[in-house]
């Protein structure tokens, strides 16, 4: 029997007889998009001109009224289409197509400018064929010749490999064209592990999909952010000479996201083999509850308290003759050092056929535990083994968990282990440059650490079930989590999420949905059906995670009523309403579920809509948003309402931590990415990042911007973000005045540029003589050379020989005195070179209006910086070798950096 922990299988670790990764050597081919369905002439008998129906979704690929109708005809759940021409005098807004389902045309209101149609009778949904029809679609067949296809490993996102194109792409994908593709995987499963049950698992595939195994149809169109587990017992072939062929068709053009969600098999895959009696998938629940006084944490040691661990495990017996069968469950609880805290066993008798038997583990008195916290994220592991009557281990599982006390209070906000703690959160989508949404599991810690670096302590998984590697990272690194379900009305999706995630101590809030995604039936978020659907998800969260007391919330202002069904009221922007919401809802805790949406670009100091550039001063936000200092500090808000100025607001989530592809705001093309991020998409800090560092973090902070490279005599607006009480600016050694720093705000001066240097001095107290800290900027000279370094420690200790780790190489343009040159007079293109044993996976520069491809061996510098992701070529590299990355640019001295290749035996990856 094989029992191992496959490091990169983010699926829950019910290990059964065997668990194999299915991530390597897929064959891949882009496919033609399916021909669009054309509507019959009489498809929409009811004319909806000059009527607006609410609760519809945008159809991204419709560019006129006809294609808008066709978009509706191609969906079996669409009864209405609406096209807005966007002409002068129209009230409907910009050119756009909206489709969806409404009950009756009288649900729509008069509004000028719309064209549209309604059909009251929906056509029956198409029934998928049982088998692959090779005449129609040869790629799904077992014998299809795919030898000429490209070989790749998953996770994979094929959209990010494209080139932006205003005509072929849409705003949500950052103008990267989205098509469809086939993935095929040939594999054998040894007869030695032949089992009674076999499951095929995908942690996430993005797009409308169809999956075939050995020519048999398995499934189409499941939810795209949710793990998928398919029973393939009757289809999987065993034996070294018998090949299995898995074929997956992915159509990325059908999506419901207004942000970049890529397309492809963008998370990991595996095969799990089980006996008919086994531990149920995600069936171990290990809640840990503080049951005594807490001994507070210190800088060096975690808080401790007596905890109870009322753990349960589900044994599943699929098939007959289960009733009365006897098994033993053995369990072992270990601490973070692997020391056994307690162990025991319980005998159990199965309750019935085709059924689940839930068994309480008697862990007895586990005594005092180290509590999980932001500063000391202490974890424990619970191992469970299912033992047959002859003593054989039939199945086993290991889950990490932690004990902590998380309380939301209507008046006093959030506390963790009895310490009042403001939730200083960031909301994030999933993508990184070069990877799109197929971010390797090994980079999830980097994504979290990059947020902690400016003082954030919480992450909202907007707007979907995250990859579980992210939650492993937040557990390990001490980051609180708002875990978000994608779509209201999909209770099964929420059930999968809560069963999979309930043991993660970092998760403190369950969320039902976000804004438009809370609309369950197309009739609006407040429609009776949407409310019933939301209640169903609340009930699922409460019953499946019935011990950890996690509140259920959502980012939906319409549900913040006096008698709200939410446990935690989520205020979506609307900073100026906190006091009113508190007056309205006395007895429920409140959080700012989404805030800010400030927009800025790194090292840009003008707004230029035509070029897609947003100024970097934290002065810009869309109509619904606010600057960082207003949203968090209430600086220019009525009565100073802000997250940090109101104790009853538990905290908040800035939209967003990282810049992401798509949803370019405030202007679209030529802008191709969001400008909301506190850091840019490559992870470089913007000026605005320092506002967060100053006020999210207790450490002294002093920062001055912009750079000091201007035209002689030019007026420059200098800002300082700092938490010192007073800050003084010097231009070429002459004081421009000392100013008091208002809490949660900034100070600014207008000065005249003269080459040389500029600096700010920070004073701890008003009137201090002594300077506590100085921050200087020098005028940079002409670029002369490149400097390559490992960025953010990603790869400092090397990369794994299995190709799963990534190193992040930062390249900076320097002048002769090693000062980073912050402005490019002409484009500087850095060319990356790499030895055969390594691969440049992709590049990024944080430029939100850059149209060059991410997946390439060269990239333009943006304000002195560019980065690349590097990995080992697992097929040829050896442990101990060095991967050498060289960087060159015309007219500049190049540089080189070596990344060492390390062993990864510890992962125990078993791939088919
Ligand atoms: C919110 C929405 C986000 C994003 C953001 C931009 O309303 O929840 O998904 O669109 O606006 O400001």
TrEMBL record:
Q: Which organism is it from?
A: Triparma laevis f. longispina
Q: Please give one Gene Ontology molecular function term for this protein.
A: hydrolase activity, hydrolyzing O-glycosyl compounds
Question: Which residues does the UniProt record annotate as the domain Beta-mannosidase-like galactose-binding?
Answer: 181-251
Where in the numbering of this chain does the Glycoside hydrolase family domain appear?
Answer: 800-897
Supply the name of the protein: Beta-galactosidase
Q: Which PROSITE patterns match?
A: GLYCOSYL_HYDROL_F2_2 (PS00608)
Q: Where is the DUF4982 domain?
A: 713-765
Q: Which keywords belong to this entry? A: Glycosidase, Hydrolase
